[in-house]
From TrEMBL:
Species lineage: Bacteria, Pseudomonadati, Pseudomonadota, Gammaproteobacteria, Alteromonadales
Regions crossing the membrane: 39-57, 77-99, 156-174, 186-207, 326-344
Species the sequence originates in: Thalassotalea fonticola
Keywords, ordered alphabetically: 4Fe-4S, Electron transport, Iron, Iron-sulfur, Membrane, Metal-binding, Transmembrane, Transmembrane helix, Transport
InterPro entries in alphabetical order: 4Fe4S_Fe-S-bd, 4Fe4S_Fe_S_CS, Cyt_c_oxidase_cbb3_FixG, Electron_Trans/Redox, FixG_C, Helical_ferredxn, Ig-like_fold
Name this protein carries in UniProt: Cytochrome c oxidase accessory protein CcoG
UniProt keyword annotation of Thylakoid present: no
4Fe-4S ferredoxin-type domain sequence ranges: 87-116, 210-313
PROSITE patterns: 4FE4S_FER_1
Keyword Nucleotidyltransferase: no
Domain FixG C-terminal immunoglobulin-like: 341-453
Length: 455
């Protein structure tokens, strides 16, 4: 194919730049940049807008810390429902692995919040301080009023974005209408203010100071990405056979015979958010953002050369899905199936029975054998439910309480129940089931095992 071999898992190239060397990223337009910006706008609007979606008069998506549940429209998930998060993370992990095996680190380059917010901060920096050359010149010049004004304006803008990010993030835990009202009336509680400032600080540090260092040195995904690559993985690749020998030339000059298509303009380096040279081969820092592709295609167009000197390419053409692809797809489908089955069969009520710890049994005033129990019902629905209490396995036993149990909405209710054995009962212990039947028949009966003790 004439493509430089770049996917040897044991030969990824590591950069030797100083960790404190500042990278000045040139703003670039093009096909992949347009895709990224469209995705970024969509994701940011979704991030800001989701807390404002209301369902049945309440916020549709809310992590209610006080009530210890996650609300998603008409569904409420409690700590007992932790399995749903397990399934979601498993599905997300397999989907990420599948995409990575097909297209490398496009998650990092197009959707990762670190990249989205970093490029947003770079966009603000470009608007305030100017283009790449102007920013370099500004940093080198001596302290002046203009320099201070631009630097202060930039950091104030960054901090404003960071605070807004913190507020939006907290609106997933505190009702959005409440937190925004408190914010505009300057009546935010100290606890909420502290959390907003914490998330704002994290955003500000990550997107303004750390930037590419997060991708290069902190993100674990950058370290194990090569495990998921294979010969068909399409990664950002420089066509060495076509591009070398690289060298500068005049715009309207015919291409010299001894030179390749690469005009050595270095634009692929100056537009890279992590500051690497893709012409050196695949590097673990590369986030597959495609900015170098846009820059190179633009240069190729100016010189009337064919585009694609840098592009998403693999070592081998993939005409059919690999075994790994089928494996990932199968695992995703299996996980989704189990998730749907779990949601379908998930009980809307959590019931637990605790036997009286003070005594296994009691003899009442008329000589009958009694066992006491505490029944705890967590109603996960948004409306109160009446249950009728019964048992299976204890014939002729008496329930000493009202058989009607009221479980209030989104509340954990506890009831004391006494079972009285029939006359002349002598069995040492007997297994049975408490049965809670919804009087409306809307929900399935809830059964829970217990034991009746004597002697």
């Amino acid at each position: 194919m004439g493509i430089r071999k770049t996917i040897d898992k044991n030969q990824l190239i590591f950069q030797t730049k100083h960790i404190d060397e500042k990278i000045y990223v040139k703003e670039q337009k093009g096909f992949y940049q347009k895709i990224r910006r469209s995705l970024s706008v969509f994701l940011m609007l979704a991030f800001i807008g989701i807390p404002f979606i209301h369902y049945q008069g309440e916020q549709a998506v809310l992590f209610d810390v006080a009530a210890q549940h996650l609300k998603v429209f008409n569904y409420y998930f409690y700590p007992q429902d932790l399995l749903i998060f397990t399934f979601i993370f498993i599905i997300a992990a397999f989907a990420l692995f599948y995409v990575s095996s097909k297209y490398g680190r496009i998650w990092c380059g197009f959707i990762c919040p670190q990249t989205v917010w970093t490029l947003l901060f770079l966009w603000v920096e470009h608007r305030i301080e100017g283009n790449r050359q102007q920013r370099i010149k500004l940093d080198k010049q001596k302290l002046s009023g203009e320099k201070v004004l631009k630097k202060v304006a930039k950091h104030i803008s960054w901090q404003a974005i960071s605070v807004l990010t913190g507020v939006v993030f907290m609106s997933y835990f505190v009702p959005a209408t409440d937190i925004y009202t408190e914010l505009f009336t300057l009546n935010v509680s100290p606890l909420i203010s502290a959390w907003v400032m914490f998330f704002a600080l994290c955003t500000y540090v990550n997107a303004s100071w750390i930037r590419e260092k997060m991708c290069q040195h902190m993100c674990p995904y950058a370290r194990f990405q090569s495990v998921m690559f294979n010969e068909t993985t399409k990664v950002v690749t420089y066509d060495e056979m076509r591009g070398e020998q690289r060298g500068p030339r005049k715009l309207n000059q015919p291409k010299p015979d001894h030179l390749g298509d690469c005009v050595d303009c270095n634009l692929c380096v100056v537009v890279c958010p992590v500051g690497i040279d893709i012409r050196d081969g695949l590097q673990y820092d590369c986030i597959s953002c495609g900015l170098c592709i846009d820059a190179c295609d633009e240069t190729m167009k100016k010189f009337s050369y064919a585009k694609g000197l840098i592009g998403y390419k693999g070592e081998a053409a993939s005409r059919s899905k690999s075994k790994a692809d089928y494996g990932y797809i199968a695992l995703i489908l299996i996980s989704v199936t189990f998730l749907l089955l779990w949601i379908t069969n998930r009980s809307q009520f959590e019931v637990s029975v605790l036997k009286d710890r003070n005594a296994l049994y009691r003899i009442n005033n008329v000589g009958g054998v009694e066992n006491s129990y505490q029944i705890k019902i967590l109603n996960k629905t948004n409306k109160p439910t009446e249950f009728e209490l019964d048992n299976i396995g204890l014939d002729n036993f008496t329930i000493d309480m009202s058989k009607i149990v009221m479980a209030h909405a989104q509340t954990s209710s506890t009831f004391t129940v006494t079972l009285i054995a029939p006359e002349n009962y002598q069995q040492k212990f007997k297994q049975f089931e408490f049965v809670l039947k919804d009087k409306t028949g809307e929900h399935k009966p809830v059964k829970i095992n217990s034991t009746f003790h004597y002697l």
